[in-house]
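pasting for ref
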Amino acid sequence: MDKNNQTPFVVLARTIMLCAVFLLTSCASEPPHADDVAAKDPLRIYVSGNKAYLSGILGRDLTSQLKNMIRKHPNVTDLVLVDVPGTDDEEAVIESARLIRSLGLNTHIARTGYVLSGGVDLFLGGVKRTIGAGAAVGVHTWIDESGKLPKNNDVSDSINATYINFYLSMGVPERFYWFSLKAAPADRVYFLSPEEMYDYKLITE
């Protein structure tokens, strides 16, 4: 995709997700291995049995990567997110989350693993969503390359509406989106408590 032809939605994703990798300020605990994450780490997928393990940045090829993986390993039923610091293409993440849901796959955050920002959105694609002991889920607000911030409580804003419609389709209440905007600025990350994860229906069991 030519950068000049990117929608504002894609552009803002390219800015905010990479910021989160280096500037981690937690209201819970810092995710394990966070210091080892590189902003340009490409996505890696490893399949073992009926589980596919994902680590790295979620890129523009995410949907095709997942389709290829499923084609080669049709027995996969669970996606295990190990270390997912975010994405450089939020549209690809939402498309992939919808694909995960349509295929009836489950998602799980690995023990002591973590998902940040756009990684959380991919996690929401699972029919069943679970987390391992010590796993972390981090959110923050977004900002685009021009410095534009979201219009709080304005559902008529196209970007807000896109996120809200996505969350509702994943069984997550609209209030989670507004919470994420206020939880932390774009250059910081707020880590949800287990109680918050259940309250916002990020975890299904």
